[in-house]
Structure prediction request, 310 residues.
Amino acid sequence: MTLTQLEYVVALDAVRHFAKAAERCHITQPSLSMQVQNLEEELGVQIFLRTNPVTTTETGRIVVDQAIRILSEAEALHQLVQQERNIIAGRLKIGVLPTLAPYLLPHFLQAFISEYPQLRLSVQELTTEHIIRQLRNGSLDAGILATPLNHSDLKESFLFNEEFVAYVSHEEKLFNKKYLLPEDFDVRTMWLLEEGHCLRSQVMNLCALQKNASIEKHLDFAAGSIETLKSLVDRSGGITLLPELSTYEMTAAKKNMLRYFKKPTPVREISIVTLKAFTKIRLIDALKQAVLENLPDQIKRRKKVEVIRI
Prediction:
């Protein structure tokens, strides 16, 4: 039994597909299949059923859970040694919300990579549900998420508050208002993200849309990205709500379509999330520092502003 075999088993359990697990582990599928089979023969148990998708057996679940613990302890040993040597190195796997990644990563990613050349960073865009699942199965080390999540096994480390702003078509009555209130929004004019995005739930809660969601078929269309929401307003009219980082690269003409909320301002809280038993503490501290140091000044100053978290 080797740590490498345990890594392959954990990866296969996470993605439930041999080819995808092999890709994640940067090896060929035959090599991964052979190593998994060798481990099964050594232990004398069947860890996986070769179905589509691959299914973990009851005994296999025990093996995978123990493998995650062993790999975590092995990583902790590496981190202790690196800490004694004052080195930031190793591998860090993070998941970032799709509504955040395109707008936050460019602010800090290159600086982080340049400062820690011995660190191997892996980044995936994933929904909150998928990030939490992969934190728990060991596929991810950390997530950058909207919080609070209220999960007892997760630790949340606050990063910043991000304002919500309205993106309003010239044809809408709200275009002529300087400052908006949550109750100003009409469900019949709103464009929202598809189910599964926490941003959708936050917007519906903020504007009390949930109770009226069934009155108009307009809401049957749900966008897959923030950029789609912007395009819908541009071409079809209506209104959408955007997190502020997604507005910074807009042209002057597009920024003229932004309308801000009357204070206190609604925001979403963004945090780094890990398991409470997480061991790569120094790597996460370095990541947090890189994010905070490279945030736009407007967001850095928000710690002193009265806000409404949603």
About this structure: The radius of gyration is 22 Å. The chain has eleven helices and 13 strands. The first strand starts at residue 48 and ends at 49.
